[in-house]
Specification:
The complex is a heterodimer of chains A (594) and B (294).
Chain A: E1 5-13, H1 18-31, E2 35-41, E3 51-59, E4 70-75, H2 78-81, E5 88-97, E6 119-123, H3 125-133, H4 139-151, H5 155-165, H6 171-188, E7 209-215, H7 216-226, E8 231-234, H8 241-253, E9 257-260, H9 264-276, E10 281-285, H10 287-302, E11 307-313, H11 330-335, E12 344-346, H12 351-368, E13 371-377, H13 378-382, E14 384-390, E15 436-438, H14 452-464, E16 478-482, E17 487-493, H15 497-510, E18 515-520, E19 522-524, H16 528-537, E20 538-545, H17 551-560, E21 565-568, H18 577-593
Chain B: H1 10-20, H2 39-52, E1 60-64, E2 79-82, H3 88-98, E3 103-109, H4 110-116, H5 118-127, E4 132-137, E5 140-141, E6 147-148, H6 172-179, E7 183-188, H7 192-204, E8 209-214, H8 227-233, E9 235-236, H9 246-253, E10 259-265, H10 271-282
Parallel strand pairs in B: 1-2, 1-3, 3-4, 4-8, 7-8, 9-10
Antiparallel strand pairs in B: 5-6, 7-10
Helix pairs in contact in B: 2-7, 4-5, 6-9
The chains are: A alpha/beta (594), B alpha/beta (294).
The structure holds thiamine diphosphate, iron/sulfur cluster and magnesium ion.
Residues 66-69, 85, 108-112, 138, 140-144, 149 of chain B line the site of thiamine diphosphate.
Chain lengths: 594, 294
């Protein structure tokens, strides 16, 4: 049994320590050398008795999404966990509190809901915990000990992570939680393992690289820091806030500056001001904030100012569903604003991609003197993955096109028309580079001009300079996976949905369907040729997206005029692998029948 | 500010202008303002003040919004950013945060500052961003050809208030004083020398300096804030005005006719100084100049 693929759900009420238990579980498994993907669901309310779900998938091979079916369900509160029993596969396990709970209405106890084929383990969570720690607060840790014994999880790693987690509290707290873990472990010796859930040895980690576990937003922060971010301006909004919160801790340590502004308009305005002054500058927001920012984004395009805008999407329109995931701001990110205002838009598909895109965004913004939007979504922002970082910094510290020595008396042309449409750039403080930039159409000097000829030439400049972005180094703007050559079904996906698409593709291949999947990372400018090449190989094309209209499908069919099948979901939850797979099967069959 | 009257000889005047040195601060583009517009005095005042203070043009960034007043950066030899309507202050804040070695001057009109951009003033003021904000108040929208503005007087007829303006005008000085601006003064475009002196003081002040300039729009206002009317209304702040006393400043700002001079001044840490403190608290090292992470 070498390859491991184990997914555990922990479900409880706010206050049960559900998320904390999931956190310890994923950190311990990552520390022991496994690959981990995890995504938590919180109640929208700040306090109260909402449902919390922690899902942790532990593997040895690289995987790209969570599984629909889990191997083990741990209930810390049956009233919430019962809904999730159906997610447990046959011969998987359900672990619940077996003490009769008097207040529960009839039929609300887990024991009545475990399905035939699933293996129930009733554990006296409270009692075990109280005996070990004289309180029932650490029930969540007791179940971790139980899991460790049942499935052979690495005990030492758990001890380390638990000690780590409580190290800011009084020593007794850590000790009592370790006792709770050990009590759970001990309790499990009394159980006979009837499920077929197993854990193999961990994966090997390459030398010279660092494995860390982080969220998409955490990776964005790391990317910003490694790329040498100088200034950040933001206004809090879920699910982007944690980017600013982490940067607020880290940037001052590095001597960089961060400001919480009065709104998103000022956040991007200050970002553009800072970009103009030569600092690597960024802001982060969600759809409602981006809606406020687009006028300024247009100014960034017109005045050719480098700046980076992270956008973590949530359910929309308007205030929408702040704690639910969606991919419905593609249109706004790509097209938002007045006039012909093309900008660069990147959408990473996993946590490692968040890191790379974040750092590359500063390079691209500087090199092409334009705003760069990085589109994330709540699912990607908040989910944890183990990521392997190379030990060297992969980002270029300076990509600005320098002003060459000028003849004295010759006026500096900020918007000089050049072969690659990028003009040499001076920033305030540079001798002899004085100029004024403006949102008005302008000539090469930057002076306002509304001649038809000038507007035509400058419009071409602003668009054509971005062609270079399609060839920027060390960044997959678009990549095909799976079968090569002609295929029955091709899946075209972007953002976090690509993970599920890839899993669905592999499942389809296993069923004998010729299938490949392409991720589109650069949404603007769109790598039309690469996409066209892929589509030409596909008999059928499926575009799964978490939006109602099919925004990527519209973007691609608008440029390529090719019929595409769409799969759109707006449930606020990530796309399900099975949903995609079902469509792939149907499309493959439709073809076969034809 | 009351200059003794003496004849002006053209040759003498031209020589004085050429040798003065402040032309180096003037751009090669000629202002596009209407002849007689108050903004000429302000631009003259800024060039002279910068020259007097010996600030190199390469270290000056003039940030503006949209409006006649906001055309300002084009007429100055310095770095300039003509931004969006109302967004002068946040862009200027970004410039200063990015590089605190730069001298940042924000300029704009009354509509730009108090209507569309009204939400930003309080924050730039309370944060004490080390910059100078020169607000050119003509009580009207000039660029869009004569609509009412938040500082238009009651009873003023404009193209969008054909039956007279009935909205109470704002009181900019009182607002800025209560927002926490650390330097607040008022000048009049008709009193050029005084205006220039106040601009120089404003730029010298460490922190957010707000200079309100009463500046007639000769094209779209023939009845209200005209030179003729303002010449009669304006007066100096009393000799004994204490610019360290916030309440006295508020009282002076509340007077029915506009007083000219420095209303209020206080010393306190600027935004970037506060950021340096944050860096020290975090164990980092403030370096000044261009912001970047080490
Ligand atoms: C978002 C936006 N709304 C409206 C305008 C049109 N507009 C340009 S300038 C201006 C008012 C200018 O008045 P003020 O700021 O007082 O400057 P002045 O022209 O009087 O110097 C308006 C409404 C614009 N440019 N942008
Ligand atoms: S319209 Fe008024 S404010 Fe504008 S330039 Fe002419 S006089 Fe000055
Ligand atoms: Mg005005």
């Amino acid at each position: 049994m070498d390859s491991t693929d184990l997914q555990i759900i922990i479900c409880g009420s706010a206050g049960d320590g559900t998320i904390a238990a999931g956190d310890i579980l994923k950190r311990a498994m990552a520390r022991a050398g496994y690959k981990v993907i995890a995504f938590d669901l919180y109640p929208a309310e700040i306090r109260g008795f909402g449902k919390c779900v922690a899902r942790v998938r532990v593997t040895t091979e690289q995987v790209y999404s969570l599984k629909r079916r889990s191997d083990v369900l741990v209930s810390l509160d049956d009233s919430h966990a019962i809904e999730h029993v159906g997610e447990v596969r046959d011969f998987g396990a359900v672990i619940f509190e077996n003490a009769p709970i008097a207040r529960l209405r009839e039929g609300r106890h887990m024991s009545a809901h475990v399905k035939p084929g699933q293996v129930p383990y009733g554990l006296a969570q409270r009692e075990v915990c109280e005996r070990a720690t004289s309180s029932s607060r650490s029930r969540n840790i007791v179940v971790l000990g139980f899991l460790a014994r049942m499935y052979g999880l690495p005990v030492a790693a758990f001890h380390e992570i638990i000690a780590d987690k409580f190290k800011t509290k009084a020593p007794v707290v850590g000790e009592s939680n370790i006792r709770a873990f050990d009590a759970g472990f001990e309790a499990a010796t009394a159980y006979f393992k009837l499920d077929d859930v197993t854990l193999g040895p961990p994966s090997h980690v390459a030398e010279g690289a660092d494995t860390v576990m982080m969220t998409g937003n955490g990776a964005v922060v790391q990317g910003c820091l490694d790329a040498g971010i100088g200034s950040f301006f933001g206004y809090p909004i879920t699910p982007a806030t944690t980017i600013m919160e982490r940067l607020a801790v880290e940037m001052p340590k590095a001597g960089a500056r961060l400001l919480q502004t009065e709104d998103e308009i000022s956040a991007i305005a200050a970002t553009i001001g800072a970009g103009y002054a030569g600092s690597r500058a960024a802001t982060a927001t969600s759809g409602p904030g981006l809606a406020l920012m687009v006028e300024m984004l247009g100014l960034g395009v017109m005045a050719e100012v480098p700046c980076v805008i992270f956008v973590s999407q949530r359910g929309g329109p308007s205030t929408g569903m702040p704690t639910k995931t969606e991919q419905s701001d593609l249109n706004l990110a790509v097209f938002g604003g007045a006039g012909d205002a093309q900008r660069i838009v990147l959408a990473p598909t996993n946590v490692e991609g968040c890191y790379r895109c974040a750092g590359k965004a500063f390079e691209l913004a500087e090199k092409f003197q334009t705003p760069v939007v990085i589109l994330l979504d709540l699912y990607l922002s908040n989910r944890y993955e183990t990521v392997i970082f190379s030990k060297d910094n992969i980002f270029e510290p300076n990509c600005s096109k320098a002003v060459e020595k000028q003849d004295p008396g010759q006026a500096y042309q900020r918007f000089q028309l050049t072969d690659d449409f990028v003009s040499p750039r001076a920033v305030p403080g540079d001798v002899g580079g004085m100029h004024t930039v403006t949102g008005l159409e302008h000539n090469e000097l930057g002076r306002p001009s509304d001649s038809g000829e000038m507007h035509t030439r400058m419009s071409a400049k602003r668009h054509r300079k971005l062609e270079g972005a399609l060839a920027h180094g060390d960044l997959n703007i678009c990549k095909r996976f799976g079968d090569e050559g002609p295929v029955d079904v091709g899946i075209l996906a972007w953002g976090s949905t690509f993970g599920e698409s890839l899993e669905a593709m592999m499942a389809a291949q296993a069923e004998g369907i010729r299938c490949s999947a392409m991720k589109v990372v650069m949404l603007s400018p769109l790598p039309v040729d690469l996409i066209a090449g892929f589509l030409a190989d596909c008999k059928e094309v499926l575009v799964p997206e978490l939006n109602y209209e099919g925004q990527l499908a519209n973007l691609v069919s608008g440029q390529l005029g090719r019929p595409l099948s769409r799969l759109n979901r707006v449930t606020g939850a990530p796309m399900q692998v099975e949903e995609i797979l079902e469509q792939v099967r149907a499309l493959a069959k439709g073809r076969a029948a034809a | 500010m009351n200059e003794p009257l003496r004849p002006v000889y053209l040759e003498e005047k031209l020589e004085e202008i050429r040798s003065d040195g402040h032309l180096a601060y003037r751009s090669k583009s000629l202002p596009t303002w209407c002849p007689g517009c108050g903004y000429f005095s302000v631009s003259e005042g800024v060039t002279k003040a910068l020259k007097e203070l010996h600030i190199p043009t390469k270290d000056v960034v003039v940030v503006s919004g949209i409006g006649c007043a906001s055309r300002f950066p084009f007429f100055l030899e310095a770095y300039g950013f003509h931004t969006l309507h109302g967004r002068t202050l946040p862009v200027a804040t970004g410039v200063k945060v990015a590089n605190d070695a730069l001298t940042v001057v924000a300029v704009g009109g009354d509509g730009d500052g108090f209507a569309i951009g009204g939400g930003h003033i309080s924050h730039a003021a309370r944060r004490n961003v080390d910059m100078t904000y020169i607000l050119m108040d003509n009580g009207i929208y000039g660029l869009t050809k004569g609509q009412t503005s938040p500082t238009s007087a009651l009873g003023f007829k404009t193209s969008t208030t054909p039956y007279e303006n009935r909205d109470q005008p704002l009181r900019p000085l009182m607002m800025l004083l209560s927002y926490g601006a650390s330097w607040v003064a008022q000048a009049y475009a008709g009193h050029q020398h005084h205006l220039k002196d106040l601009i120089a003081q404003a730029i010298t002040h460490k922190g957010f300096s707000y200079l309100h300039v009463l500046s007639p729009c000769v094209t779209f206002d023939k009845t209200n804030m005209t030179y003729a009317n303002l010449d009669l209304q304006v007066r100096d702040l009393p000799e004994d005005h204490d610019s360290g006393d916030l309440m006295a400043a508020l009282t002076a700002a509340n007077a029915p006719t506009p007083a000219l001079g420095l209303f209020y001044r206080e010393e306190r840490p600027t935004l970037t100084e506060a950021m340096d403190e944050v860096m020290r608290a975090a164990g980092g090292e403030p370096r000044g100049g261009l912001a970047r992470s080490a």
